[in-house]
Automatic annotation (TrEMBL):
Residues 170-557 form the Peptidase M3A/M3B catalytic domain. The keyword Ribosomal protein does not apply. It comes from Deinococcus malanensis. This is Oligoendopeptidase F. Binds 1 zinc ion. Coiled coil: none annotated.
Length: 569
């Protein structure tokens, strides 16, 4: 059996699993059961198992649809599940929450207190009108997946996927980079009009979701939906300002130094890839592997050097059809980690093309997978697994750094130094992008006018791009290309989920800083924090991992000084 065949087998969902009738009697039995405080633990355990089975089916159908964006049957099957199963499941889940909240004299134990409070808040936010509207919302988001998953790029007489074309942006030859950039821009502009239409529909839907829930705007609605209780929109705005003042100058300095060493007259869009800055010596980008299998072997050896338990988990993923790494036509171009709760198994989807960035992304996504494994082992209730979103990127981003000292088998000393430098540079260059993404969404969902147009979206993105990326010279280029930078995965698929990457990157740097003095202790703290799952508040999870929950100006300034020192070294 090939690995792809193993993946397809893992993602199989029977017709029975895709029907609401399969789950309805068990939801009804839970609703009808007499419930006292003493009965709650057993009742919750049954509900958790049922929820896991339902989530399993939805997750597998979703991944299968993402692997086959050009397969109408796969798309229809997933959309049918969303339309015919999930609304009923949402209503039944809300009824069970209300039943739990009504149990007299029930005091949740410490490991369920947070989720009990989250249930209470979710019940207050629930509106019947938003159930069917949520189905519409999911269908609109899926339209983005189909449009971008089927994109092709014509370059040098070849038809390439988006990841394959983006690989050419890392060429040391400026002419090749420019050619690839224009080809990608042409491909993006072909779908831009359709994506504009999808976005306007999404904005209207999201504003209606907020109105239905009696919230002033979609930001306020989403704040509650995401359970953001440890910080405010004002804290986010302060973060935007701090990045503008503390990080943008450092990014500008980095790119200025590289441009000077390469004798570039200015930094053009094809000269700036925030994930992989140009090599100042004009060397080819690192190519640590050629195939997905080679990347798996590289990672397996790195995990073996880092921690025996992590290596075993990754081996389980390799053998169990839980990795799909190769880029191919008809496959969604993003990378992510999904989770199947009934078997406590994570699944990683990627689109690798042989770059060092692929290595980093694999460690990132498998860090998520470790989070799923360890929290699932320690937390029987499905709601207590994983963590609040403000912590969920720490297991992934910290893994990017913790594996640094275990790559000598794949990279020579010089290559490893270059990889390390790229990783550190990536933190610096990511923060302006994260601030821009977050600032755009605060404007879009809390400040933008009712009669919002595509031109308004484009104009705001241009304004923010000039603030956070002032060192890129766009003169003489089609302004539409720059203005459409907001047409990005998270804007469509997971609104307001982006600043968490910045929070967690800052924490990951802190964890790595400590690991350089106590590697074994850092690894034990890392795994211990994963086991806590979603049963503890965000600040406690950060402390358990060996970091502070901070993203204020002073903290950012201190970490930027540390990174600047490390880059000089």
């Amino acid at each position: 059996m090939t690995q792809l065949e193993a993946v397809e087998r893992k993602l199989q969902v029977t017709d029975t699993q895709g029907r609401w009738e399969t789950y309805a009697p068990r939801f009804a039995a839970l609703q009808e059961q007499d419930l006292t405080a003493a009965d709650v633990p057993g009742w919750l355990a049954k509900w958790s198992v049922l929820s896991a089975e339902l989530n399993d089916a939805g997750s597998k159908l979703s991944v299968h649809a993402d692997l086959h964006t050009d397969d109408d049957a796969a798309q229809t099957r997933y959309q049918t599940f969303l339309a015919q199963v999930m609304p009923s499941a949402q209503r039944a889940g809300h009824a069970l929450i209300q039943k739990l909240l009504a149990v007299p004299d029930y005091t949740p134990p410490s490991d369920f207190a947070l989720n009990y409070r989250r249930f209470r808040d979710a019940a207050a936010l629930f509106r019947e009108a938003n159930v069917d509207l949520g189905v519409t919302h999911e269908a609109q988001k899926n339209r983005h997946s189909v449009l971008t998953g089927n994109q092709k790029v014509m370059l040098g007489g070849q038809e390439l996927t988006i990841p394959q074309a983006k690989q050419r942006l890392d060429s040391p030859e400026r002419g090749e980079r420019e050619e690839a950039w224009h080809a990608l821009a042409e491909s993006n502009l072909k779908v831009a009009g359709d994506l504009d239409h999808v976005m306007l529909e999404l904005i209207a839907t999201r504003r209606q979701l907020a109105r239905n829930a009696d919230e002033a705007n979609y930001r306020d609605f989403r704040w509650k939906e995401l359970d953001r209780v440890d910080y405010t929109p004002a804290d986010c705005r302060a973060f935007h300002d701090a990045v503008r003042d503390e990080v943008v100058p450092l990014t500008t300095e980095l790119m200025g130094d590289i441009a000077a060493q390469l004798d570039l007259d200015c930094v053009r869009p094809w000269d700036y890839n925030r994930n992989n800055l140009l090599d100042p010596q004009g060397r080819e980008s690192l190519r640590p592997f050629k195939t997905g299998e080679e990347l798996e072997e590289l990672a397996q050896r790195a995990f073996a050097g880092l921690d025996e338990g992590l290596a075993a988990r990754f081996g389980q993923m390799r053998q169990g059809g839980l990795l799909d790494l190769e880029s191919r036509p008809g496959k969604m171009t993003h990378a992510y980690c999904q989770y199947f709760p009934t078997t406590n198994e994570p699944f990683v989807l990627m689109n690798v093309v042989g770059t060092a960035e692929d290595v980093r992304v694999l460690f990132h996504e498998v860090g998520h997978a470790f989070h799923g494994f360890y929290s699932g082992d320690a937390q029987p209730l499905v709601w207590n697994r994983w963590s609040p979103i403000e912590f969920v990127e720490i297991p992934s981003m910290a893994m990017e750094f913790l594996t640094l000292d275990h790559l000598s088998h794949a990279l020579g000393d010089d290559e490893l130094a270059r990889y390390r430098e790229k990783l550190l540079q990536g933190v610096v260059t990511f923060l302006p992008w994260a601030a821009q993404m977050d600032a755009f969404q605060h404007w879009l969902y809390a400040e933008a006018p009712d009669g919002l147009t595509v031109a308004d979206l484009d104009r705001k993105w241009l304004e923010l791009d000039q603030t956070f990326h002032p060192f890129v010279e766009w003169e003489g280029l089609d302004e539409r290309i720059r203005a459409k930078g907001w047409q990005y995965y998270h804007i469509f698929q997971v609104p307001f989920y982006y600043i968490e990457y910045a929070m967690c990157y800052l924490a990951a740097v802190s964890i790595w800083r400590e690991a350089r003095n106590d590697a074994a202790g850092a690894m034990e703290r890392y795994k211990a924090s994963l086991r806590l799952g979603s049963a503890y508040p965000v600040p406690e999870l950060y402390r358990a991992a060996g970091a502070e929950f901070r993203f204020d100006r002073e903290h950012i300034r201190g970490l930027m000084a540390f990174l600047k020192e490390q880059l000089k070294a």
